[in-house]
Amino acid sequence: MVSALKDKNILLGITGSIAAYKAAEIIRLLRKRGAQVYPIMTRAATYFVHPITFQTLASRRVVLELFRQEDKIKHISLAELADALLIAPASANIIAKLANGIADDILSTVALATKAPVLIAPAMNHQMYVNPILQQNIDKLKRVGVKFIGPEKGQLASGKVGIGRMSEPSRIVECLESLIQCRDEFKGKCFLVTAGPTRERIDEVRFISNYSSGKMGYALAEEGICRGARIILVSGPTSLVPPAEAEFYRVESAEEMRKKVMEEFARVDGVLMAAAVSDFRPERKREGKIKKSVGERFTLELRQNPDILSELGKRKEGKILVGFCAETENLEEEAKRKLREKNLDLIVANDITLEGAGFGVDTNIVVLIDRYGNLTHLSKRSKREVARAVWDKIKEITKNLYR
Ligand code: C5P
């Protein structure tokens, strides 16, 4: 698949933060996707990483100075050639400068002069990040269309845990790719995404679950955010880090997931049910732990869980409903039946017997079927790329709905 970043000119602003070393990986990922990278470093950034590192990776001289005799018009020409400006890591200082129109070095001057989309990945100490002045600066920039990714919660350079850690390079590059492709496509819209498995309690120490990793649902949430949607992510237990920008709810059982989804349904424009909801749960609620001494044979009675998506399909209320189905045989017939019976707009079907599809892996092979019977077969690709195709389809559906 050709990346939206291919042959694009990406200005990469690197500012003074310990996360500056991660910019090396960003350059590598951008170049792998075919982008031309123009690194611009602030003076503070050069204390963390020597420009030669970025120069080597970008195969281009790093821009460091505003006033060099031979580079007189550089800030304007850079600003004009840019398809996007990414600032990663972005310090509190550069955010403050951008929010106030200050142009006192090459990076802030280019930022002020460019018409290209700007994506900022902040990285700083927790206290600096939560400082109300910084938050006001971020809000101000968001209002004029500047995009932010992260920061995330995690271990900071100080050794403390808090919010301020720069998002991972792969996440930043994915977001930039989506931004270039489809900026603000879902601005003002809110979607609910479910992800992961559910856990159905047997006793105090055991549960029934499935192999879902949550990767497909989290990729859908990430992609939705990058396209400007507000995302409510309702997730069963997974080991994944939810995107910082999502409104995140963790649930355990199908019943808990149902409750949360129903609560939020009224305020969303659509629901993407990527969760692998357990169809059954143990009938009895048991205290303590079932003992081995119950006998050689032990029967656990199960009761069917409510089908959340079917319930949403009955309500519908003009919202977009996307379902997922994992099958081992008769994929298309089964998917079409579910689409019809659950009153969906779109179903994403995958044959989990294929290598590189389904639970646990990073790739998927799916067919998208909409309510008009249009089929889109997608060969093996990353779950993020599948997520892109799903959102593209949702866009198409919304256009038809609101026409
Ligand atoms: O019928 P099946 O379980 O194969 O349908 C899968 C779709 O229905 C998925 O989108 C899944 O999230 C949703 N589902 C649900 N509630 C259930 C079971 C599945 O919403 N109890």
Automatic annotation (TrEMBL):
Q: Which GO terms describe its biological process?
A: coenzyme A biosynthetic process; pantothenate catabolic process
Needed cofactors, names only, are: Mg(2+); FMN
Which InterPro entries is this protein grouped with? Answer: CoaB-like_sf, CoaBC, DNA/pantothenate-metab_flavo_C, Flavin_trans-like, Flavoprotein
Extract the ranges annotated as region (Phosphopantothenoylcysteine decarboxylase).
1-190
**Positions contributing to CTP binding:** 279, 289, 306-309, 324, 338, 342
DNA/pantothenate metabolism flavoprotein C-terminal domain residues: 187-396
- Look up the record and name the pathway of this protein: Cofactor biosynthesis; coenzyme A biosynthesis; CoA from (R)-pantothenate: step 3/5; Cofactor biosynthesis; coenzyme A biosynthesis; CoA from (R)-pantothenate: step 2/5
Q: Which GO terms describe its cellular component?
A: phosphopantothenoylcysteine decarboxylase complex
Q: What SUPFAM superfamilies does the entry give?
A: CoaB-like (SSF102645), Homo-oligomeric flavin-containing Cys decarboxylases, HFCD (SSF52507)
Domain of life the protein comes from: Bacteria
Region ranges (Phosphopantothenate--cysteine ligase): 191-403
Task: List, for all copies, the residue spans of the domain called Flavoprotein.
Answer: 8-177
Q: Which UniProt keywords apply?
A: Decarboxylase, Flavoprotein, FMN, Ligase, Lyase, Magnesium, Metal-binding, Multifunctional enzyme
Transmembrane region(s):
none
Record-stated family: In the C-terminal section; belongs to the PPC synthetase family. In the N-terminal section; belongs to the HFCD (homo-oligomeric flavin containing Cys decarboxylase) superfamily.
The name of this protein is: Coenzyme A biosynthesis bifunctional protein CoaBC
Q: Which organism is it from?
A: Aerophobetes bacterium
Q: What is the lineage of its organism?
A: Bacteria, Candidatus Aerophobota
